[in-house]
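We now fix the convention by which a protein and its fold are recorded. The integers have meaning only within a learned vocabulary of local backbone shapes. A complete example follows; check for yourself that the lines match position by position.
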Amino acid sequence: MRIAYLCNRYPAVSHSFVRREIAGVEAAGHSVDRYTVRSPGTLIDASDREEQARTTAILAAGATGLGAALLRVALRQPRRLAGALALAVRSAGWSPKAMVRALAYLGEAAWLLERFRKAPVDHLHAHFGTNPAMVARLLRRLGGPPYSFTVHGPDEFDQPDALDLRGKVADARLAVAISSFGRSQLMRWSDPGDWHRLAVVRCGVDAGFLDTDPPPAPSAPRFAAVARLNGQKGLPVLIEAAALLKARGRDFHIAIAGDGELRDMLTRRIAEAGLEDRVELLGAIDGAGVRRLLEASRVFVLPSFAEGLPVVIMEALALQRPVIASAIAGTPELVDAGCGWLVPAGSPDAVADAMEAAIDADDATIAAMGREGRRRVAAQHDATANARALIDAIAARPA
């Protein structure tokens, strides 16, 4: 097949799983055209920069380009446009801001329709059930290719009615969840008559995480966290847990990689707790840097409030590093006592207890947990195998 991929902002440091999936689809013998709604801006990872050169940004056409495409579609097929316009307006409600956004989605769909007339594709796959899925849905109404979309969470599940998940599933050839938990949420918000359209296809890690043997985990009590510094990731809880560990007289170091709107607040809290010599904010780092950070750490920790299933947890386990993670969403489908510690979300005490247990565990125990984690990732999160599973799932549903 010739497949088009559509994302809101691609490539991106936090969306490396899309790049891996595309590589897996191409490895299976299919061709992929890459589209992003918005240009990603500055990229720090060399692999992302290479991918950017192969990706077309829709909004680069500008308002004039999108408007002209919409006008040409109106002249060629007014009935289809009227139907797509009705869907866009219905989905937006009556908020002026939402209406403008819906009309922009329609312009993007019209632009893609013209693009696909010049370079036809057999199928369009969108990542995230937000605006990429809406553009794919409107494109289909205009006569474009069948579409599928992958829902990651938690954003889609925070506003399922506003995003009209039910309608997007009903119009799609396939709706993909990255975990069984995610599929259950799609079941919750879609018509039971459409459940046959749902499938689970898990995200995967780069082959390099599984093809080479990682170094042994260090004995030193070094922890790593890799996350966007936003409200979903629960990093203030990690700072509170660090303060508890310090009060217990434990020696440790936490390196946090990532950037975001909470950086100043986290910096302030680290200083207030007197943790400057124990907790380090590294800022954003590239994929190679993430790997080096994980390999230098004994255990990975991520006390999230809301998730899908974090790819960085898979990467840590693939490198035989046990993980401490919140017992939410799809995480318990990968992590349990065999390869880490699951903690109640929002509990600094539970995070501190798990970190203390990791410090006290002997090296043999940490190594055994790491091996089990790597085995699970190899079995469930091989990017190439999962890309083939996605293609098989698309092919199994009628267009």
